[in-house]
Description:
By secondary structure, the chain is an alpha+beta fold. The protein is built from 11 helices and 10 strands. The chain folds into 2 domains: 166 residues, Jelly Rolls (Sandwich); 108 residues, Arc Repressor Mutant, subunit A (Orthogonal Bundle). The strands form 2 sheets. The chain has a 6-stranded antiparallel β-sheet. A 4-stranded antiparallel β-sheet has the order 3-8-5-6. Helix 3 runs antiparallel to helix 4 and helix 6 packs across helix 7.
Amino acid sequence: MLQSSWLQVREELGQMPILEGTIGGATPLFVERYMYQTIERTVSGLGCTGLVSQFGGGQVLEGEQDHWRSQNIPTNTLLVPRGAATHWHYSGTVDFAVFYFLEDGNDTMANLESLADARGQPTSFSDPLVGAAAQQLVSELHKGMMADQAFMAQLAAVMLEQTYRVLTTPACGGINPRHAHFSRLQAVLNHIHQNPAEDLSADALARLVGVSQAHFRRLFLEAVGMPPHRYVLAARLEQVRKLLSLSEMPLVRIAQECGFSSQSHLTACFRAAHAVTPAQFRARLSRNAKPTA
């Protein structure tokens, strides 16, 4: 039973949560909030996927001495796959919440579970929206019987959707408007998103704005924060997700429309980024879109 997951956590932490509650809707979660001070604890693998969000306190290290898998501070979040043991080291008081994935969730939850299982170990990340949503969910649960269940269901869906986006899309804040080559680079980004099927190699993009390939690579990395090929792949996969969600276009056609050399190339890139194939991604969307009787 899934309930054994959080009962196991309580036993292995040697603590009782200061708050617990269930969030319903399309992304059902069981939530616990802990606040305590200790040195270190080990939690063996859970029977479900979990999301751990730290709200306050000191630094938290996860892993083993000299082999830390994550170094968390307030606002950090950790996606923990089922079956993955974790070893926690605290420095001072810690305040965090654990969101346990319940059964019969939507495609976002299923995709996150697949992504976590594929990585096989906890994945740490920091995102303001995920952290704020987690904090607000816990604050709402503290209201007890007065908590707004519909609001929490919507907020939980946003938190998990943003988690999936953060973990499957390279971080990019866009071009710094103060950059000397802002207009050139903005034209490049527009061209990438409007023409995913075209030749978007660094050489082709450099020719588009009239600079050498080496100079273009330096400018792009400096302004956008990632090399051109990574940005192009992320843009193409974004378009793939849209077509999978909004159309019944065959996968071979989607591969052509989005600039992949073949359907197998698309599948390999999509699986590497999302831990599911395009066909599985579409099937989950279709399954969850069917009206219930």
